Amino acid sequence: MTPNSVADMKHKIAPSLLAADFLNLEREVMMINRSEADWLHLDIMDGVFVPNISFGFPVLEAIRPLLTKPMDVHLMVVEPQKFIPELARLGTFMMNVHYEASTHLHRTVTAIRDAGMQAGVTLNPHTPVALLEDIIADVDMVLLMSVNPGFGGQKFIEHTIDKTAALKEMIARKGLSTLIEIDGGVNRETAPRLLKAGADVLVAGNYVFRSPDPPGTIKELKAL
Ligand code: DX5
Ligand code: ZN
Questions:
Q1: Which CATH number fits the domain that encloses residue 50?
Q2: Theoretical Cys-Cys bridge with 211: which of 36, 152, 161, 217, CB 3.0 to 4.6 Å?
Q3: What pTM did the predictor assign?
Q4: At what angle do helices 25-34 and 214-222 cross, to 10 degrees?
Q5: 43 catalytic per annotation
Q6: Residue 72 catalytic?
């Protein structure tokens, strides 16, 4: 099994760079490389789709030569389809677009795959998983937001546990192997419950980067 195979059985951990020390990005990336992290989660915000602005493609370009883990890019932007060629050029492994930002979602996920990337569809906390019935067979992963996107360090929305279980049931019913990723408020308390409900990939920002021992915290999440 390879570290970026979507068929791996063990759950994956994707630390979110949003909570890293931006004055020491090289050190943070090297820490991720040495850790048991499976992917690096990268949050790109435009100040329009979400009420915040994070970082953009020049930062991905700078870390790419150092990073040995696959890039899991979460676009919190309007018209995410515009950025498919740039993210493919940067070597993105997984490109996540929001359902709420994509008028022609099928066209967008097809174009993401045609560009050589895995396609992820992201749902805001208020968006029902039932809306995925007619697209789920065409995507590699569903990213469920367990906080309202735009900021790290928010409180986990409890309803995400039921949503995860409902999505897992849909994936099983259709005989698919679509991954479920959860983003927001993941910690020692919420992670085991999410895994039990069917999550395959856990994003963790503050819980990892603000801990006294980030590699140890990644190891702890990986061991659950
Ligand atoms: C929020 C981002 C998350 C964020 C998670 O809009 O999508 O990836 O970094 O941060 P924590 O784990 O601190 O809630
Ligand atoms: Zn994210």
A1: 3.20.20.70
A2: 217
A3: 0.96
A4: 40
A5: yes
A6: no
